[in-house]
Write a structure and sequence with these properties.
heterodimer, A: mainly alpha, two-stranded antiparallel sheet, 2 strands, globular, B: alpha+beta, five-stranded mixed barrel, elongated
């Protein structure tokens, strides 16, 4: 996975740009897209637990399931229920958008075997070809994300200042 | 019609239960569905993968001329090793499993230990940024059990906080 800052800033940029076009998406929903972009990284709990598989109450679990579309959607659904009904549509869209962006970006991580993990689980176990663009620990994606997010931030402030 | 908190709580529990089911089902299906032998399959019975293509993460224990030894005791050979490869580095290895145990690597991708520290550090920053930005725009209405937009919004939130009955 790319570092979390890159995911969060990409979520910020995409959600802010979307809010310029979509009447029902406001500035307050942009942070929710940023939160959505963090959800698949819940799988990194395995770094604290010492392995991708653990036995919980006698049942084996794999934390890698948390980085998949299915878990992300389930968390987004739960998250959307934490807001009042009138906010729910935009909240769900922001969270799902953040999750989808994170998973899409993870497809571009370098995989020496040429295949990405089954990120579309449980819909399919298929391992799609990896984009092989960057390593998780590469610095340059974060530099690009900071630059793009900074530009979007400046443009957004100008738009708000001009009352658009 | 006002939402019933119990129904909402049950729906949240159902969604989280789906996650729990996924954790169990994923663990049960990994070995059968992954394109390459999983780390556990390699660790428990490396010999079963002899002659097969494997794709795995290893940690370098010792670098030698033209090869390196992993913390698991496997020897990874390659036509050329990155000059910066050193003990403690994480390496993605794609190659052929051989008796030894050894892997004849076709491709390597090295993650330097320093870069890994960078990744963790900026990831913490990213998490704080997302949480901080959310709390700037939203606040908990504990009695109602909602996150509500802060009333100072100038972006159409209006009096959303006031719409929630039992607001704290």
């Amino acid at each position: 996975m790319t570092d979390l800052l890159t995911h969060v800033l990409a979520g910020y940029a995409l959600a802010t740009l979307s809010s310029w076009r979509l009447d029902w998406l406001d500035a307050r929903h942009v942070p929710l897209a940023m939160v959505g972009a963090t959800i698949p990284d819940a799988a990194k709990v395995y770094l604290l637990l010492g392995g991708v598989r653990t036995t919980v109450a006698g049942v084996e679990v794999s934390w890698l399931a948390l980085q998949t579309a299915g878990a992300g959607l389930a968390f987004a659904l739960a998250g959307s229920l934490l807001v009042p009904p009138r906010e729910r549509r935009a909240t769900l869209a922001a969270l799902v958008g953040g999750v989808a962006l994170h998973v899409t970006m993870d497809y571009f991580v370098i995989r020496t075997g040429g295949l990405a993990p089954p990120y579309l689980y449980p819909f399919t176990w298929a391992q799609l070809p990896a984009g092989n663009l960057y390593l998780s620990a590469d610095v340059w994606p974060a530099v690009v994300a900071v630059a793009v997010a900074g530009l979007v931030f400046a443009l957004d402030r100008r738009r708000r200042g001009s009352g658009v | 019609m006002r939402e019933r908190p119990v129904v909402r709580a049950l729906l949240i529990a159902c969604a989280l239960s789906l996650v729990g089911w996924g954790l169990v089902d994923y663990a049960a299906g990994m070995d059968a569905n992954y394109a390459y032998p999983t780390d556990r399959e390699l660790a428990t019975d490396f010999a079963a993968s002899h002659g097969q293509q494997v794709d795995t993460w290893v940690t370098v224990a010792e670098r030698r001329d033209g090869e390196f030894v992993t913390e698991s005791g496997w020897v990874v050979t390659a036509d050329s090793l990155p000059p910066s490869l050193d003990a403690g580095d994480s390496v993605q290895v794609y190659g052929t499993a051989r008796p030894g145990p050894r892997i004849a690597a076709d491709r390597l991708a090295v993650t330097d230990g320093t870069n890994r520290g960078f990744m963790l550090g900026v990831s913490v920053c990213g998490l704080l940024l997302a949480v901080g930005a959310t709390l700037r725009h939203w606040r908990p209405a504990l009695r109602a059990g909602y996150l509500v937009p802060r009333a100072t919004e100038g972006d159409g939130a209006g009096d959303a906080a006031g719409e929630v009955s039992g607001d704290d």
